[in-house]
Structure to design on (330 residues):
């Protein structure tokens, strides 16, 4: 029983948490690609910038003596989402819109996004330094233990909040894309931009809505990731490529595929480094004398866990090039 609980703690919960981060990031990337037709490599640094927005606001509130029953960074998340959305729209107007107006090709937009990535990384280090920061300013993070009769299932406060926020975000995005007029306009622009323009759909409004959604999801993912670990200038640097892998695995331009791809990558990455000998130890007595269960039965060493998303990506591209959710964008 204790071995099973340990598997749930380290394997299942770990996959659920990192999968939620990947899913939120991948949805933003796939929406931007679906509407604007380029891969936004600066999305990871938008997540990092959002986490710093949350830290600065929480620090100001803590310095003013404000105390709440929940972490300040979590309470300020709606404000952080708004700030990140404005920040994303500002990046678009400053760097991407001038290129679109000049008819730049997608490869030029991608190179511009890489330039924006390097610029944001430099600015974050310039103003925030290179050290790590704790997002819990007023009190340490709470740890919840779910009793199982033996070893309890452990989940932290930011992990629980991340799971809830991911579910709410996915449901809200589905309702927005399928029920709202603007969501239907976004789907039309993604399907055929020229036809959407002829029918009178305001493209500027659709573009702004895309950046607002992408920025809001990046704010949730970045803030929750920083609360779960620590806030660092390279917070989202190592997860950007797995986010893109999740986007491609799910089907480029498919929000629902991005969610599925995010969880697929998250669970595969987590379970690949899980020591399976923990689950096999109770069966040691059934083995012949002299046969020992190895101390480590992980498929991949922890330091090589980032190889897993790309292995899955290659397999999917070989056998299903359109991704899990093929068909029309959105």
């Amino acid at each position: 029983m204790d071995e099973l609980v340990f598997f749930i703690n380290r394997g299942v919960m770990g996959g659920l948490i990192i999968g939620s981060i990947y899913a939120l990031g991948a949805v933003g990337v796939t929406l931007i690609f679906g509407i604007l037709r380029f891969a936004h490599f600066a999305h990871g640094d938008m997540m990092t910038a959002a986490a710093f927005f949350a830290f600065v606001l929480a620090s100001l509130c803590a310095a003013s003596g404000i105390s709440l029953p929940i972490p300040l960074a979590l309470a300020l998340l709606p404000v952080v989402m708004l700030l990140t959305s404005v920040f994303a729209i500002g990046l678009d107007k400053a760097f991407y819109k001038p290129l679109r107006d000049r008819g730049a090709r997608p490869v030029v937009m991608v190179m511009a996004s890489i330039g924006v990535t390097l610029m944001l990384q430099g600015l974050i280090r310039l103003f925030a330094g290179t050290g790590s920061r704790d997002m819990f300013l007023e009190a340490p993070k709470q740890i919840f233990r779910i009793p199982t009769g033996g070893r309890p299932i452990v989940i932290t406060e930011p992990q629980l909040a991340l799971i809830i926020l991911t579910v709410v975000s996915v449901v809200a995005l589905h309702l927005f894309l399928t029920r709202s007029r603007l969501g239907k306009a976004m789907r039309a622009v993604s399907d055929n931009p020229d036809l959407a323009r002829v029918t009178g759909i305001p493209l500027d409004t659709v573009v702004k809505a895309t950046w607002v959604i992408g920025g809001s999801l990046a704010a949730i993912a970045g803030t929750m990731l920083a609360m779960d670990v620590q806030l660092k200038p390279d917070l989202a640097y190592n997860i950007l490529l797995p986010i893109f892998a999740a986007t491609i695995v799910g089907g480029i331009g498919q929000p629902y595929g991005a969610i599925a791809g995010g969880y697929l990558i998250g669970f595969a990455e987590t379970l690949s480094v899980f020591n399976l000998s923990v689950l096999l130890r109770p069966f040691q007595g059934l083995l012949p004398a002299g046969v020992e269960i190895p101390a480590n039965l992980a498929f991949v060493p922890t330091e090589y866990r980032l190889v897993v998303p790309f292995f899955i990506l290659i397999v999917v591209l070989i056998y299903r090039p359109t991704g899990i959710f093929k068909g029309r964008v959105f």
Notes: The longest helix spans residues 2-36.
